Amino acid sequence: MPLRRLTVAALLALPCALAATPASASDFRSLAEPAILYDAPSKQGKPLFVIQRYTPVEMVVSVDRWVKVREPAGSLLWLERRQLSEKRTLIVTAARAEIRQKPDGNAPLAFEAAKDLVLELADAPADGWVKVRHRDGSTGFIRMTQVWGL
């Protein structure tokens, strides 16, 4: 009988354990639309500021319809899950980044990007470089140390 009680107790506790699930390590998404960031997982929470469409955010914890995210400046805040996109974007953190035609510091320049420019992730990072796409369609490789969102 003690085993049966333990099993029932474990099953009853399961919904509570699943209610707040941590996101996997470095689970990034971008915003599908401009989003209000809140201090709590509820529209009754205090609205703090609006974050722009396509901005990358790191998912930290999910609770029902809400996700606690780390935004590019490092703050941990809440937004509605429906506002997230599967599309991956990166934000330039360097004052000026050189995007190269190949993943090599000596490769010809494809284009330059200013700080806070959002670029689409075009391919998985490799050897310290990541392939990105500008909204005008230009593609190239940027050093991983010059972007946030990976």
Description:
The protein has 150 residues and is mostly beta strands. It has two domains: 22-85, SH3 Domains (SH3 type barrels, Roll), CATH 2.30.30.40; 90-148, SH3 Domains (SH3 type barrels, Roll). The chain is 12% helix and 48% strand. The protein contains one helix and 14 strands, in the order αββββββββββββββ. The chain has one helix at residues 2-19; strands at 20-31, 35-38, 47-51, 56-63, 66-70, 76-80, 84-85, 89-92, 96-100, 109-114, 118-121, 129-133, 139-143, 147-148. Strands 6-5-4-1-7 form a five-stranded antiparallel beta sheet. It has a five-stranded antiparallel beta sheet with strand order 13-12-11-8-14, with no helix packed on it. A hairpin with an 8-residue loop joins strand 2 and strand 3. The radius of gyration is 20 Å and the shape is elongated. The termini are far apart. The model is unreliable at 5-25 (pLDDT under 50).
